[in-house]
Amino acid sequence: MSTIGKISFKTNAKKWSVLTLTGALTLSLAACGSSKTETAASSAPTAASTIAATAVPSTPAPKTDLKPVTLLNVSYDPTRELYVNYNKAFAKYWKDKTGQDVTVKQSHGGSGSQARAVADGLAADVVTLALGSDINSLVKPGLLGADWQKKFENNSTPYTSTIVLLVRKGNKKGIKDWNDLIKPGVEVITPNPKTSGGARWNFLAAWDYALKKNNNDEAAAKDFVGKLYKNVKVLDSGARDSTNTFVQKGLGDVLIAWENEAYLAVKETPDAFEIITPSQSILAEPPVAIVDKNVDKNGTKEVATAYLQYLYSEEGQTIAAQNYYRPRLASVAKKFESQFKQIPLVTIDDPEFGGWTNTQAKFFADKGIFDQIYTPVKK
Fold it and tell me: For residues 131 and 193, is the Cβ–Cβ distance under 8 A?
């Protein structure tokens, strides 16, 4: 479910609160209509170094006669806080660089649902989604080219994450690793892989654990994830909804979560939760892309390109790390290395998965493995 404005994480009576910030300047935060978007812009440093010598596109000296421009970034659930901060920094950078005011509107929801919304007409200039298959789904409608991942460094993934386990303080069920999630009486919270990109990373991390523990026996892995999802009582549509179910509503013993989402929960309520880093997990690579058809129509290609490229700058990478995403830029990763535990991480391109096209068809398409192992709980 999408919301408007800046999100702060609170539990129980101190619920996730939604604050709509407004102001008189073009670069102020502003709420927008039924598309459930948010805007952000303000001050930040202007200097930026980049990954692999890839520079933020150079621009001429600032002009004073440029008309203000608006971008729409359609993103997945847990990036709300990241882009509130990043949009402010980019707006300041772009204003100082070109003299042009830029306002960035945000739309958030389950990654799969967001991709479908763009395909159905939501006029995103850029998409920053949870996984490549969701952006791939925009190729067939002609919204962007099949080579979209070649437009930016690291297959257009400026930052990474992984999947961890969030438990309540004290960890009464003694959860230490993936195998504890299939024990009788353990209630698991995770979103729906049909609508949520994070949920697909969750599923695949659990699958790979089971596969490796059972000598690559897919039947055993299928049995494992089947038992795990029998312990799932609620399948929300997106990762943030599942976080709210676990944190705000108090349901479940363990939340399978994006690492950044788990860190945010602990930061906001350190006495309520703790993070369990499993023995192995998956390298989650949320990609970004320009929606070519829309930027050509809107005349926003230059600023949209700079917007995504600036994610790779030192400032962009620092903002990502401050919001608990793993930065790509080595100098920034070094500064934040104590923040992230190093564990074995399978990748989507490893042989057991073979890329998103194969993985989507095998696991998450209609009648795929997820449909085979999951039976909705009867109410």
Answer: no
Longest dimension (CA), the chain: 66
The whole-number average pLDDT for the span 128-143 is 97
The whole-chain average pLDDT of the chain stands at 87
What is the reported pTM? 0.82
Distance CA 379, CA 172 (A): 27
pLDDT band at 180 (very low <50, low <70, confident <90, very high): very high
Structure tokens at 128: 């920053």
pLDDT of residue 60: 53
Of 60-69, 83-92, 238-247, 276-285, which range is least confident? 60-69
d(CA 307, CA 118): 19
Question: Of 292, 168, 187, which Cα lies nearest the Cα of 230?
Answer: 187
Sheet holding 37-40: strands in order across?
Answer: 37-40, 102-109, 69-76, 126-128, 288-290
Cross-strand partners of 232: 188
Look-up: residue for tokens 């001050």? 43
Task: Kindly state the average pLDDT of the residues 139-149.
Answer: 97
Q: With helix as H, strand as E and coil as C, how does the chain read?
A: CCCCCEEECCCCCCCCEEECCCCCCCCCCCECCCCCEEEECCCCCCCCCCHHHCCCCCCCCCCCCCCCEEEEEEEEHHHHHHHHHHHHHHHHHHHHHHCCCEEEEEEEECHHHHHHHHHCCCCCCEEECCCHHHHHCCCCCCCCCCCHHHCCHHHHCCEEECEEEEEECCCCCCCCCHHHHHCCCCCEECCCCCCCHHHHHHHHHHHHHHHHHCCCCHHHHHHHHHHHHHCEEECCCCHHHHHHHHHCCCCCCEEEEEHHHHHHHHHHCCCCEEEECCCCEECECCCEEECHHHHHHHCCHHHHHHHHHHHHCHHHHHHHHHCCCEECCHHHHHHCHHHCCCCCEECCCCCCCCCHHHHHHHHHCCCCHHHHHCCCCCC
Structure tokens at 88: 């402010």
